From TrEMBL:
Heterodimer of SbcC and SbcD. Residues 267-355 form the Nuclease SbcCD subunit D C-terminal domain. Keywords: DNA recombination, DNA replication, Endonuclease, Exonuclease, Hydrolase, Nuclease. GO terms for molecular function: exonuclease activity. This is Nuclease SbcCD subunit D. Gene3D superfamilies: 3.60.21.10. Belongs to the SbcD family. Pfam families: Metallophos, SbcD_C. PANTHER family: COMPONENT OF ATP-DEPENDENT DSDNA EXONUCLEASE, NUCLEASE SBCCD SUBUNIT D. NCBIfam families: sbcd. The keyword Transmembrane does not apply. It comes from Streptomyces glycanivorans. SbcCD cleaves DNA hairpin structures. These structures can inhibit DNA replication and are intermediates in certain DNA recombination reactions. The complex acts as a 3'->5' double strand exonuclease that can open hairpins. It also has a 5' single-strand endonuclease activity.
């Protein structure tokens, strides 16, 4: 069976205030053409269809058009909700859409109810695990605790139980939206850390033939059977080195996996430039970035006059300007942003406690309190997104 694995469309998202709807429409054109060109048997979309719980009407229309075209192509689609989606909104009409072979899996209670497809060699069961917010699904799934590994372990136990009752030789595919250990993140994914932990081990998914992951925006292989397709478009300059692709997966009769990366259209290349303003304006080696979306980091010790206007003359698609003056490490004027670089909310909070106490950091119990409060704020944010 030939599977096209994609995820993280983020319909409705912009890139540094540049609307991306046309680029997203071009990608979906490419997706439908790829389905036809490569004789795809099923499309899987591993979450974050939209960029927010209540997407703009233009994004909804684009999604609706894509579903109609996939249905018209006669190719089934299996799709789950991600942490950016409103599971309830995305799942509206799921029963009716299934008649058109568009299968939405947005309810955790349905994680062990597969979409069963057939090829010449028998059945393939597709299990959809939507994004599982631990605090919200722990009890429903019977998880041992409110953590990502615990809820995914509980969901996969249900999957394996169902699979064990199916005919011998049934192949299996799991769609999941999660941060799996070994994956490389970027700046454009929303933090899903719970209890100080975001990643789950790949072994959680043992026992199935292929795991189609969403959430991380870089296309990557965790194991031969566990892969991220990544987002089809770049949504932050941290993705400037990404090759945006989809996975074309051939699932053999015995469950063997063959994978090929298929390139996605690039609306405009990204460039991260760093140096003194005069150097960026004069260096002939940078001429190739004239048509790129540019993030410029200026290292001048004094802020130059009208830097953005001057950069736009040479790089008309400059979108981001960052100031990072060259300073000695011991310089007391080193920026606050530099001191925070690479530190998560928990570390920043602990550093603040140490600062106001004159260097004495929080105790273990205080760390647990800080972590619990940060988790509660994040869950409240998720609930707020869903209720809007």
């Amino acid at each position: 069976m030939r599977i096209l694995h994609t995820s993280d469309w983020h319909l409705g998202r912009s890139f540094h205030r540049v609307p991306m709807l046309d680029a997203q429409a071009a990608y979906l054109d490419h997706l439908v053409e790829t389905v036809r060109e490569h004789s795809v048997d099923v499309v899987v979309v591993a979450g974050d269809v939209y960029d927010r719980a209540v997407p703009p009407l233009s994004a909804v229309q684009l999604f609706d058009d894509a579903l109609h075209r996939l249905a018209a192509a006669g190719v089934p689609t299996v799709m789950i909700s991600g942490n950016h989606d409103s599971a309830r909104r995305l799942g509206v009409g799921a029963g009716l859409m299934a008649r058109a072979r568009i299968h939405l899996r947005t309810d955790p209670d349905d994680c062990a109810t597969p979409v069963v497809l057939h090829d010449a060699h028998g059945e393939v069961a597709f299990y959809g695990l939507p994004y599982l917010e631990p605090a919200l699904v722990k009890d429903a799934l019977g998880a041992t605790k409110a953590g990502h590994e615990a809820v995914l372990t509980a969901a996969m136990a249900r999957v394996r139980a169902d699979l064990s009752l199916r005919p011998e030789g049934t192949r299996s595919v799991v769609l999941a939206h999660a941060f799996v250990a070994g994956g490389a993140p970027s700046d454009s994914e929303r933090d899903i850390t719970v209890g100080g932990v975001a990643a789950v081990p790949a072994g959680v998914f043992d026992g199935v033939d292929y795991v189609a992951l969403g959430h991380l925006h870089g296309c990557q292989r965790v194991t031969d059977r566990v892969r991220y397709s990544g987002s089809p478009l770049a949504y932050s300059f941290s993705e400037h080195a990404h090759r945006k692709t989809m996975w074309l997966i051939d699932l053999a009769p015995g469950g063997e996996v063959a994978a090929e990366r298929l390139d996605c259209p690039v609306p405009r290349p990204l460039a991260r430039l760093r140096g003194r303003l005069d150097t960026l304006l004069e260096d002939p080696a940078l001429e190739g970035h004239r048509e790129s979306w540019v993030e410029a980091t200026l290292t001048d010790t004094a802020r130059p006059d009208e830097p953005m206007a001057r950069l736009l003359e040479r790089f008309p698609h400059t979108l981001s300007l960052v100031f990072d003056p060259e300073r000695a490490p011991q310089d007391p004027l080193a920026s606050y942003a530099q001191r925070l670089a690479g530190r998560d909310d928990q570390q920043v909070a602990e550093d603040f406690v140490a600062h106001v106490r004159g260097g004495s950091g929080p105790s273990d119990e205080e760390r647990r309190v800080l972590r619990a409060v940060l988790d509660e704020v994040r869950v409240d944010d998720v609930l707020g997104e869903v209720s809007r």
